Amino acid sequence: MDKILILDFGGQSTQLIGRRIRQLGVYSEIVPGDVRLDALPLEGARGIILSGSGYSVYEPGAPSVDRAIYELGVPILGICYGFQRIAADQGGKVEPLGRKEFGRARVTLTERTALFARIPEMSFLSWMSHGDSVTKFPNGFSAIGRSDNNLPAAFVNEEKRTWGVQFHPEASHCQYGMEVLEAFAIDICGARREWNMRSFISAKREKLRERVGARKVVLLISGGVDSCVVAALLLTSLPGDQVHLMYIDTGLMREGESEEVRESLAGLGARHVHVVDASERFYAGLAGVEDPEQKRRIIGDLFMNVQEQEIARLGIENSFLAQGTLYTDLIESGRGVGNKANVIKTHHNVRSPLVEAARRRGLIIEPLASLYKDEVRVLGLELGLPQRIVSRHPFPGPGLAVRILGEVTREKCELLRRADLLFLAELRSRALYDRIWQAFCVLLPVRSVGVSGDTRRYGHVLALRAVASLDAITADVYPIGMTDLLEISSLITNRIPEIGRVVYDVSSKPPATIEWE
Q1: Integer Cα distance of 136 and 344 in angstroms
Q2: Distance between CA 237 and CA 85 in Å, rounded?
Q3: Which residues are catalytic?
Q4: pTM for the whole thing?
Q5: What percent of the chain is predicted at pLDDT more than 70?
Q6: If pLDDT is split at 50, 70 and 90, which confidence band does 344 have?
Q7: Same domain, 112 and 237
């Protein structure tokens, strides 16, 4: 199969580049950026993309590339750090900017080359995220675009079939970004459109059967989209007796979540479903803990401890543990393909010490680890899951614990559950739920003075969060109308008297993340 190789230098959107290439119907494969040429999986490779990075090319320890790659003769595209990497490696110069170029920036093309042949205009809005700039081009390279800050935005060396762009065409905020990637993969590289979700399912099922053999697989399932899709994939790939689904009630779930999970599991046709009420253990473990990273670690370890005890009780030791880990979980936890990724926030199913230990023993199965949320939803529908499950808003693995800032208690969870139920119900009744990628409430660690009738009230402060996104890598605040916000706020404070003030979070990702912790 034709493919585009992507060299990963630790950029937060490296996998998104691969996702966009696959959207075009072309298979993509991500490898560490510093891999030697003789270790590259070159069979079928029609082109190479150098990713972004949090490093500067002139820093000690900055990720480098085997320069023999430049002599392969296949087309090369450098993106952001990759653009600067090419410049530095070929004899150019990269220097720090006095002021970082971040966010939307207009790029004006100075020359229309094959890379921009699909763009109908000579000027477009790009997405920038860099603190360095190419100040001297290598010999043989010419500028083909500049930003509105008069900084180099793109160059080309036609003879070497090498292009570079300072902006991020993979970002959903970048106008004509897909056209740039399509021009590279299809027009310049000549890659055939041979990849789709059915081919992914076929390959994944073959790998699952080969790896699992006759051993059993235990899946910790939350009832959310990711774990339900993994359950459907396992149940349609392996004999039913090998698959055990375990739902651990942490006490950190949304209102009615446990009941809905039981219904979902029954609908999947699973033969072995184990429901464990461990809420008291989770509340006790989180008592007095305020640090969000510590909360995630505690929850991850408790999940593994409860799961191991239940597996021993059921007599199914030495089983594989399956998880609904997505690539967004891996990259935010610093577990991308390469070894240069930064930790944004720890996901309990990635960096928990007990999860890491199981991974070292080769007992972790993560069939969705190369996919983004939108791909998982497509996969779920392809596997026959109902739309109501597939279209549910994402819910974090640590549950309400990362939506309660500060210490987590049973009382705060009950309060947040009531508010969240009201908020989501109102979004549905106003036909807003399906337009929003993710919506939820956050209980803040502050109280605010208010008035109820003629009485002073000192109530909790609740934040409402709703975002629009395509892939969870970037997200914009969803513009809920002011009338709707006023009515929803009034409803919450009237029906839940413990809440005295409601605010609406208008932060985009980046710089914020979607969840608050």
Answers
A1: 33
A2: 43
A3: 80, 168, 170
A4: 0.70
A5: 92
A6: very low
A7: no
